[in-house]
Specification:
Helix content is 45%, strand content 21%. It is an alpha+beta fold. Helix 7 (221-238) packs across helix 10.
Length: 278
């Protein structure tokens, strides 16, 4: 009997300093799964092979080969293989301002941050353009080519798939208790935080804290805190600290604790991430 070829996981993560530290990922995942997390900016990419499934905006979605994945800023989502062979994709993580700039230049007047209602889009021409852009940012040092492809591709994305009648979600309309919890977790991310602390802060019961926070943000408080800690670790690693040094400063017990959560959110281990971003 003929055995099927083993597909190995791999991931390459890097930044483009000349484009506002735009982050990019090229990866093949089979057994890896992303924990629920959010991005400060957009997550935009193309599935090159296989299929990915993910939870997003209270729905389950599947992205087959050739499709685009578009996640809005601040929206919790997961990520895992939709079939045993996994999936291969290229992703870009542009800051909201970059998409706002593309939308403004496209319309010839100031525009707000665009909102994309569909997380999975089938648009072969745009998928090809995004793949060319991604490859250009990986291999070309020509600043004019890099900047031109970036703006042209994002302008096409906004023109063809953004919903101009709706804006990106804002935390300004969250209940005051949720804003209090967010602020507290951000300030005390490297410390041990208990539900009793959050209940005393907000005047809610412990269950009330969990329920109201998850309803407003799509994530329970502990998952949000883990993401804050991973974000702090990313900044420390980019500054030159070793994973073992960054772990306790970011609020993790040790390097293995950091590595486990870091890879489930970022997609690569912290040591590998440090090598790329430096």
């Amino acid at each position: 009997m003929r055995e099927s070829a083993t597909i190995h996981e791999s991931a390459t993560f890097w930044r483009a300093p000349d484009l506002g530290d735009l982050e990019l990922l090229r990866a093949t995942y089979v057994t890896h799964s992303f924990a629920p997390h959010t991005h400060d900016g957009f997550a935009i990419g193309v599935i090159e092979d296989g299929a990915e499934r993910f939870r997003y905006r209270r729905g389950d979605h599947a992205a087959p080969a050739g499709s685009l994945v578009i996640i809005n800023p601040g929206e919790p989502h997961t990520g895992a293989a939709a079939r045993p062979s996994g999936w291969r994709y290229r992703m870009l993580y542009p800051a909201p301002e970059l998409l706002r700039r593309a939308a403004s230049q496209l319309s010839g007047r100031p525009r707000p941050i665009p909102f994309f209602p569909q997380p999975v889009v089938y648009d072969p021409a745009l998928a090809a353009a995004l793949l060319r852009l991604h490859a250009t940012l990986e291999t070309s040092a020509d600043p004019l080519e890099r900047e031109s492809r970036l703006l042209a591709t994002f302008a096409a994305l906004v023109q063809r798939h953004a919903d101009t009648l709706h804006l990106a979600a804002s935390s300004a309309h969250e209940p005051s208790a949720v804003r209090q919890v967010r602020a507290y977790l951000e300030e005390h991310a490297a410390e041990a935080v208990t539900l009793a602390d959050l209940a005393a802060l907000t005047g809610l019961s412990e269950f009330g804290v969990v329920r109201s926070f998850q309803r407003a943000t799509g994530m329970p408080p502990h998952a949000y805190l883990t993401q804050l800690r991973v974000g702090r670790a990313r900044r420390l690693l980019a500054q030159g600290l070793a994973p073992a040094q960054a772990a306790p400063l970011a609020g993790f017990y040790d390097q293995s604790h950091l590595t486990r959560h870091f890879k489930r959110i970022v997609g690569v281990p912290p040591a590998q991430y440090a090598r790329y971003v430096r």
